[in-house]
Design goal:
single chain, mainly beta, 42% strand, 20 strands, twelve-stranded mixed β-sheet, 256 residues
Length: 256
């Protein structure tokens, strides 16, 4: 099932994506704990798609593909490397990424698979990790690379408003162990990898993160990016596509 979040004149709602991605069947309330349809249906072309979830936090994993660690001149970590992106960095499909040109001169895309958590959880063992997953979506871990190098820690470089596009929807019925992931800029292929190349798989990531912090329904784990990251500039269009989910597209604009 594909769950989207959308805006109409009557407010923001969740919906089930139907009829070849052309129609949204409205959900009564929130999709966690079961999906109940209201009977209302909306053409996708007549609504505005927004981020499929507003997480309390986005937990990101650094250097989780060996080829990306190598291209950045880093060693492969011995355990998952965690950092956070604020909820205010989250935007949805077709919403603009705002490039803060007065603060940074090097902004990179990073296409990733995102895991959406479906229940409150802490200290989840690896063998029960699937029990807390609601679904999966596409993500772009946008990064001010020059600030990342300058600051050493990642908060400022990863935390700007609009620096965490998610979408276009959440796929709830998916085996994410070996999915193709691509990123294009203005239609040109820049990244191509598979989730089977993750150093630390999704169950291990959930176990590691929940040993540190409680995750809430709707929280998101970004699983890492493959090699091929690179810069974007205002006017560029970035698309992250993941097999079995769809394609997340955002255009870069100047924030200034």
């Amino acid at each position: 099932m594909r769950i989207a979040r959308f805006s109409t004149g009557g407010g923001v709602a969740f919906g089930v994506v139907e009829e070849g991605e052309q129609v949204l069947a409205r959900i009564d309330g929130h999709p966690f704990g079961g999906v109940s349809l209201t009977g209302e249906r909306f053409p996708v072309a007549e609504v505005r798609m927004v981020a499929p979830m507003l997480p309390s936090k986005v937990v990101a994993i650094g250097r989780n593909y060996a080829d990306h660690a190598k291209e950045m001149g880093n060693d492969v970590p011995d355990e998952p490397m965690i950092f956070l992106k604020p909820s205010t960095s989250v935007i949805g499909h077709n919403e603009p990424i705002a490039y803060p040109e007065n603060l940074t001169q090097h902004v990179d895309y990073e296409g990733e698979l995102a895991v959406v958590i479906g229940r409150l959880c802490r200290d989840v063992p690896v063998e029960r990790a699937k029990d807390v997953i609601f679904g999966y979506t596409c993500a772009n871990d946008v990064t001010a690379r020059d600030l990342q190098r300058k600051d050493v820690q990642f908060t400022r470089a990863k935390g700007f408003d609009t620096f965490c596009p998610l979408g276009p929807w959440i796929e709830t019925d998916l085996d994410a162990a070996d999915l193709a992931l691509t990123t294009t800029v203005n239609g040109e292929l820049r990244q191509s990898g598979r989730t089977s190349q993750l150093i630390f798989g999704i169950p291990a990531l959930i176990a590691h993160v929940t040993a540190v912090m409680t995750l809430l329904p709707g929280d998101v784990i970004l699983t890492g990016t493959p090699a091929g990251v690179g810069p974007v500039k205002p006017g560029d269009e970035v698309s992250v596509g993941i097999e079995g989910i769809g394609t997340l597209t955002n255009r870069v604009v100047s924030r200034d």
